[in-house]
Each structure stands twice: as structure tokens, then as C-alpha cells.
Write a structure and sequence with these properties.
2 domains, 434 Repressor (Amino-terminal Domain), about 120 residues, mainly alpha, elongated, single chain
């Protein structure tokens, strides 16, 4: 069984293949990963061995570290979403109010508050 981060790495690879207009077979042939093995790692629930990830990334012309970093961002966003989903309505309102007051997240920054702190929206 793989972790959510490992699943995010697999999804990043699948997205790269699609974004580059490649076929899975094209990547499989050039990376040496057989179709059945590919399905275990990239569509199933088995962790991707690092060497397989490195080989696939080389074929796609990207660094494995960049793929992992993007997957970490994806995983963190999913974790935040999961945490926010479980908030009570009053906690959610407090979170949104805090975001609005500090200009964080989806809420727009309050220009008056920023001015009071000696900052501006263009900073």
C-alpha cells in the first residue's frame, strides 16, 4: 500500500505524460518499464521504486526532485483540504476571517489593515 505522497508522485508523472502529449506506451518503451509493472506503480497501490521514477523522469526530461516537490505540494494541499473539510462551521468562519485579516489564502487582503502595518497590496 502506498502513501498519499506516493500516489501524488504517480499522479504527477501521469499528468506530465499527458501534458507532453506522450502515450504511456511511448514512456514505457523508452524507460524500460513494462506495461504491467507500470500499472502496479502508476495506477495501482504499490510504491514506485526510486530507480523506476528516475528512469521515467529522464525519459520525460524532468528531474525526479522536481516531480517529488510538486507531489509534496499536491499532498500538502490535499491534507489542508482534508483538515478544513472537518472543521465546524464556527471554526471555518474563524479561519476565513483570519485569512481575510492577514491577506492569506483565497480571501483578498484588506488594504486598510495592510496600511496600518506599513505594507501595501503591491508589496
Amino acid at each position: 500500500m502506498r502513501t498519499r505522497l506516493e500516489a501524488a508522485v504517480a499522479q504527477e508523472i501521469l499528468d506530465l505524460v499527458k501534458d507532453q502529449g506522450r502515450t504511456l506506451k511511448w514512456v514505457q518503451d523508452r524507460s524500460g518499464v513494462k506495461a504491467r509493472t507500470w500499472n502496479y506503480y502508476f495506477k495501482g497501490d504499490r510504491p514506485i521504486p526510486f530507480q523506476v521514477l528516475a528512469d521515467v523522469c529522464e525519459v520525460l526530461g524532468v528531474k525526479a526532485s522536481d516531480v517529488i516537490a510538486r507531489a509534496e505540494d499536491r499532498d500538502a494541499a490535499a491534507e489542508i483540504h482534508d483538515l478544513e473539510t472537518g472543521l465546524s462551521p464556527s471554526s471555518r468562519r474563524a479561519l476565513e476571517q483570519g485569512r481575510a485579516e492577514h491577506g492569506v489564502g483565497d480571501a483578498p487582503a484588506d488594504p486598510r489593515r495592510l496600511a496600518d502595518e506599513g505594507r501595501s497590496l503591491s508589496a
